[in-house]
Please model this.
Amino acid sequence: MNIQRFQAEVLPLKDKLFRLALRITLNREDAQDIVQETMLRVWDARERWETIESMEAFCITICRNQALDFVKKANRRDVSLEEEAPQSAIADVSPHEQMVRGEGIRLVRQAMDRLPEVQRSIMELRDMEGKSYEEIGLLLGLGESQVKVYLHRARKKIKAIIEQIEHYGL
Model:
């Protein structure tokens, strides 16, 4: 029964866990290692599965903590994440428009790298993963109102950073 539950509930989360670990560690190989370690830890905790309310929240919490611990140990905050847009999305757009969009994405990523970890995590979970305020609160151990406040502050700070860069050409 445990193997079937693991295959049905945990294994489908591997891509989501990888994206989370990648955004935190900024390194593909490290993110893969963290996902593997997360899977092992979830499997080792199989005796407690019946008491776990949300397996997804449990897995994401373990993965996030693993990635944050890794970053603290390795002190790797100065690397930037470069994702490529899918080819189908850029086929219908002019080269100028591609450049403008790419620059905008780069500015947002640059601004997000300057956010405190909690704000960045909340923004990623809400805007990139589509999690609800309640789910984010469960994952990060925060109240729903705290999540909203942190998200508002993060968005406000990103807007200010981007405006500063655009006005001063930095």
User: Anything to note?
Assistant: The first helix runs from residue 2 to 10. The chain has two domains: 2-74, 93-168.
